[in-house]
Amino acid sequence: MKTRLGCLSNKSDSYSDFSEFLPPAQETAARCLKLSTDEVLRWSESFDLLLSHKYGLAVFRAFLKTEFSDENIEFWMACEDYKKIKNSTKLVSKANKIYKEFIDVQAPREVNIDYRTRERTKQILEDPSPTSLNEIQAKVYSLMEKDSYPRFLRSKMYQDIVNRTHTQNQRRSV
Fold first, then answer.
1. What is the C-alpha separation between 174 and 117, in angstroms, rounded?
2. Contact present, 43 and 53 (Cβ < 8 Å)
């Protein structure tokens, strides 16, 4: 993720809270050439497009960190990784880790879900499969899509990225 935000983040005070993501200056210019204004604007077309774009996902994560609400995207990403696990032993281990980190009532990064979903997920994870977290992941996705995503699109961070990529692309075409 460090290398993904270099061309997207300012070094102004408004971005100082995620300065640890910034790459060395010499690498930044080369990566900025890969991001067009059209790509950044496409992120506003759908939440799925934002999450499927490597820079879009990185910027959205950084935005959620500034709002102290990154547990939902981290949970969603953990579920995406979980679905790819083929080994049953690793699947059980990852399921337990995700449950303890995000789902349990005392979880350090507890996601906002209702009691029924939490209990049903706990029961399903007693015999985990690659699809065990689909329901809860869909609920968290929906929460982000309805709440965090519109705030992201209105945020100064996103607007600055749109403006900067537009300015950079104009300079390149001159």
1. 55
2. yes
